[in-house]
Amino acid sequence: xxxxxxxxxxxxxxxxxxxxxxxxxxxxxxxxxxxxxxxxxxxxxxxxxxxxxxxxxxxxxxxxxxxxxxxxxxxxxxxxxxxxxxxxxxxxxxxxxxxxxxxxxxxxxxxxxxxxxxxxxxxxxxxxxxxxxxxxxxxxxxxxxxxxxxxxxxxxxxxxxxxxxxxxxxxxxxxxxxxxxxxxxxxxxxxxxxxxxxxxxxxxxxxxxxxxxxxxxxxxxxxxxxxxxxxxxxxxxxxxxxxxxxxxxxxxxxxxxxxxxxxxxxxxxxxxxxxxxxxxxxxxxxxxxxxxxxxxxxxxxxxxxxxxxxxxxxxxxxxxxxxxxxxxxxxxxxxxxxxxxxxxxxxxxxxxxxxxxxxxxxxxxxxxxxxxxxxxxxxxxxxxxxxxxxxxxxxxxxxxxxxxx
Length: 405
Description:
18 strands; 14% helix; globular; 405 residues
């Protein structure tokens, strides 16, 4: 008989099999799994067969989905979609870069971070917190399998040297640590975007975040003998973030940026396709239908211009997503020509994507990242006279349901 030990820890189970009935000590656990602090749960079975795996999955499912379910249980949420996208927060020169849509809100040098303040990048601050144990990190995007930060930050690299005298090529294997300044090129975010009916506004729930490690790998073609450079990108590790709006005056916040999703970075949210719908209430298959109704009838609810700066006037709101056309009619009996101007409303289903405006905050004291939704921009596609797509633009913004402004 095999004994299966399930080490329970908030948010995950670790499965370990033993041929005897003795409890497996923490030191014998795989190195990539952090030691658990809770008591093990013992199950004795002949083997880990398929039905048993199904039972384990059922046991694990509530743990995996608890956070998301509690968020989606809000009765005011009538539409929600989960999606994953990669974000660029910092340019190589660390200057304000309108192309990546990033604006620095705060940078604070402290005694805790001055030794790593080569460049004030989020990855350096986060790697430091992970290695100190302040930030729990995981090997998977569901944040259920803890991983040692030092091991996650280490990767194997191959270095080739060529001897011009002997014409021999030597391959050397080295262990390197991910460079937060040059090798972290973006951040992968798994989150849920939800629409609230009463507030006619949006919120986001961030499920997991991962720094993206990018490096160039040379591979030799076995047929041609030519070396080809391949760009490899993968998450370093995953971690949990909260969704709170932080106060910039708080000295624990040492890094903060305002991030706007950009088309070139594939961070627009697809409205009608892509992603995974996790909640839809009848009548809200397209939440923009309701949003536009509120925009044109409830003038107490603020909507903002394409810069998210000035509130739209009632006249501007009524004319949004509408165009005027002139219809000329001719009466053959009276020979009178009548000119009539009509308003044509555009179909909300023609809106394909949304732009997110989020604030990112790094809390150095608690080793925590906060990502708060500030506003959602409604995008409209523009076409030329021949029906060819030209570009997408923001028509108006609706600020978040949790925004304090």
